[in-house]
Each structure stands twice: as structure tokens, then as C-alpha cells.
Amino acid sequence: MINVTKTFLPPFEQYTETLKRAWDKSWITNNGELVLELEQKLKDYLDARNFILCVNGTVVLQMAIKALNLTGEIITTPFSYVATTTTILWANCTPVFVDIDPGTFCIDATKIEAAITPRTQAIMATHVYGYPCDVEAIEALASKYGLKVIYDAAHAFGTKINGTSLLNYGDVSTCSFHATKVFHMGEGGCIVSNDDKLSRQMYLYRQFGHIGEEYFTIGINGKASELHAAMGLCNLEYVGEILAKRKEKWLFYYEMLKGSDVQLLTISSHVDYNYAYFPVVFKTEAALLKVIAALKDQEIFPRRYFYPSLNLLDYVEYQSCPVAESIARNVLCLPLYFDLLETEQLQITGILLHELKEPALCN
Asked: pTM, whole model, 2 decimals?
């Protein structure tokens, strides 16, 4: 069986040896030694001014909205994981959907200005599949209209623009360290900001708003555990190798499928990509469904990621986003992970190309 992803795991003995440091102290949560060590190492790795390690990649979005005092409209993308939209709704804010760029799948920065109203307070954009939004254009619009910018960088660990980590853009950037991500700690996430005061506020939010017996503000429990930090410390040692392997497998797919009847992601020269996902966009949903069926017959399980377009959710007001709706119907992420074999990639691409040859799929 080949799944769309497979969790990278360090040697079990390495994990247990690292965890034993916390185990011996009977200190497994509340900012223990391993959490503090991982937080500092990730801060250094990402060259981040302020870095806060948290329990997952959703609570950090909630913390960002709260810390920025957002109460009105937030311009966002319909092509993202559902948490991007639901955190806006959770905060009783209003998502305003802007369609996406058909080449990068990120929010189309040229369409944002038309969506700005007197109630607009922020832009929440997703670096889709770990590929950068047009951060310069978004920052220019934010400056012009006095808007805050939150980047959902859940997929973007390891991606850089002109040598700078993508997590260092915007008022706030968040990342997920879920088990399916390029770097993971089982469950985890982080929040990054260049604003010291804002970062201090989010740090307090993470731990119920207090430090010891001093209470400063409201808060929630966003703390990571030592069990998760131990996994992160181990996996951080392999990040370079993980990124290199993913790039190798991503480029193999690209060579096999370029020139075929599917759209592929093109990487710009100024982007150091993390090769988090390998999306292919079919011309029709019928073609996509036929390929999925053929792959599943061989116990190969890709993922329709992201589907559906979030502006189509029953619990949001519909706003037309034809590009996102089309791509969401027709996009498929192929299996991609550290130890995926070349023979497995050949099998996957062989099935896909074979199904594309059928004339009925090209109508």
C-alpha cells in the first residue's frame, strides 16, 4: 500500500534516549527542558527574531487573530486547509474570499485590493503546498490600507525567498509540525513575529495568560509537551536529508510528467522550495476521478488536496472564486515522502499516464 504521505520517524532508540531526559525528571509538560531546547534550535534554524513553539498549527492561527485584535473582515484564500477559514469564523470574524493565482495556487494578490472594504482589517494568506504567496505585493497593499497580515505557513517549513525563511514575513506567520509535514514533532506548531510586543502577547496567550503566579491577560493552553519536543529534536537532525530526498523525488515526478496532459507547479528561481507536495491538475474532474480509481485498484492512495474550495462550504456565505473552484475539483496530490521508492514512483506515473491516453478523458 502506498499512501499520499508517510510519517518520517527517527531511530526508535534515539527518540527514547532523548525522551528519557524528561522522563527521568518526571517533567513532561509546562515548558520543560526539551521544549525550550527545541524552541531555541528552531529559532536559530529559521533565523527568527521571535519564535514560539506551540501544540499545533491551528491554535497558533487563533492566537494570531486574537493578538491582532481582529473583529471585522479578513481577506483570505478559498484554496487552503479548512482551518484557515474556520479560525476566522471561530473568532467571529468574516472571511472574504479572493480567488487564487492559477499557476501558484496561492491567493491572487492582484485581486485583493478590489475586496478591501471599510471593515477589512487583515489579510490571511496561505503559502499553498509550501510555495510562497506574492509577499511583496501583499505587504504593499497592507501598508497602503493599514491592514495586518497573517501567513498560514503550515506547509512552508524550509522554504526560503532570496535566502530568507518564508516564516519571517507578515505581522505573524504560523507553521504546523503535524506528523504529515516536512518537519514534524507528531503534533505541534509555531508562531513567528518580528514585533516584540506582539510576540510577548502571544507567548502569554500560549500559557493561559500567566507566568507562575503573575497573571497578565487571558489565554489558552497552547503548550507543546516534552513527548512531542523529543520527536522534534530528533527529526531536526535529519531536516537537511529530508529536504534533499523530497527534492529528488519531486524532480523525478516532474521529469516523468512534464509535457503530459496535466498542469504542474513551476518553481521560480528566487524560491528555495521545500518540495512539500506534488500537485497535478487535470483538465477535467472526470479525468481525475478515473486516475484515482486506477491508482486505488493498485492500493495507491493519493489525496484531493484541497477539496472542496472553501467558499463552497455550507456554513460560509458563497463568494464566487472560479479559479479556486476549478482547481479544487481537478487537483490531486501524488504520494511523496522520504523513503518513497523510485519503482513506486514509476508505478504511479505509469498508471497516471496510461489513464491520460484514453481519448474520452481529453474531451
From this structure: 0.96
Distance, CA of 319 to CA of 313 (rounded, Å)? 10
Hey, which CATH number is domain 2-236, 3.40.50.620, 3.40.640.10, 3.30.1330.60, 3.65.10.10?
A: 3.40.640.10
Q: Mean pLDDT over all residues of the chain?
A: 97
How far apart (Å, rounded) are the C-alpha atoms in residues 201 and 190? 14
Query: Which residues are registered as beta bridge partners of 190?
Result: 53, 175
User: What residue spans define the domains of the chain?
Assistant: 2-236, 240-362
User: Of 177, 192, 193, 194, which is closest to residue 239 (Cα–Cα)?
Assistant: 177
For the chain, give the percent of residues with pLDDT over 90: 98
Selecting among 148, 160, 181, 245, the annotated active-site residue is 181
Res. 179: pLDDT tops 60: yes
Confidence of residue 362 (pLDDT cuts 50, 70, 90): very low
Nearby residues of 229 by Cβ (< 8 Å), 6 or more positions away: 22, 32, 34, 35, 37, 38, 53, 185, 188
User: Closest by alpha carbon to 266, among 105, 149, 75?
Assistant: 105
* Predicted confidence (pLDDT) per residue in 50-75, tens digit: 999 999 999 999 999 999 999 999 99
- CATH numeric code, 240-362: 3.90.1150.10
Is 43 one of the catalytic residues?
Answer: no
* Residues in the chain, total: 363
